[in-house]
Amino acid sequence: MRHKVKGRRLRRPTAHRMALLRNLVTSFLEKERVRTTLAKAKEARPLAEKMITLAKRGTLHARRQALAFIRKESAVTKLFDELGPRFAERPGGYSRIVKLGLRSGDGARLAMLELVGSEFKKKEKKKKKEKQAKKPK
Q1: What is the residue extent of each domain of the chain?
Q2: How confident is the model at residue 102 (pLDDT cuts 50, 70, 90)?
Q3: Which of 48, 53, 58, 91 would you call most buried, defined as having the most Cβ atoms within 10 angstroms of its Cβ?
Q4: From residue 51, how far is each of 7, 87, 117, 125 by CA, in Å?
Q5: Coil, strand, or helix at residue 34?
Q6: Sorting pLDDT into bands at 50, 70 and 90, what band is 124?
């Protein structure tokens, strides 16, 4: 029975698993979107949301707590300067997991972990006329 057994081990020892999740959360907060396996995304999401909740507080103590978990100081700066104020009015649910399908190599279930409000926006394609005008004759 698994009573009160929380979380996924991800087939890694504790130190390796925590390092993996810290790196994943750091990358997620820097880029606002990360593509990974579904199990890793489900494990990283609560940790990332706790970091955003710390950023909403905005205190020195909260910043030091975030620095103790997040790997890069630049990510903490972005977290407190941009993401904290962006989600100040939101009571939770700062991120979403979008399932992407199976990985072709090993069949692992892939997912996209992204911040709410940073949806994918297609780049506008340049028209043929603009391309022809730029070509030297």
Answers
A1: 14-134
A2: very high
A3: 48
A4: 18, 12, 17, 37
A5: strand
A6: confident
pLDDT of residue 2: 87
In single-letter form, the type of residue at position 86 comes to R
For position 121, what pLDDT does the model report? 63
Query: How far from each other are the two terminal CA atoms of the chain, in whole angstroms?
Result: 75
The stretch 120-125 carries a mean pLDDT of 66
Torsion angle in degrees (nearest 10) through CA of 54, 98, 35, 28: -10
The tokens of 2 are what? Answer: 């698994």
Residue 62, both tokens: 């909260």
Between CA 76 and CA 81 the distance in angstroms is 8
CATH superfamily of 14-134: Ribosomal protein L17 (3.90.1030.10)
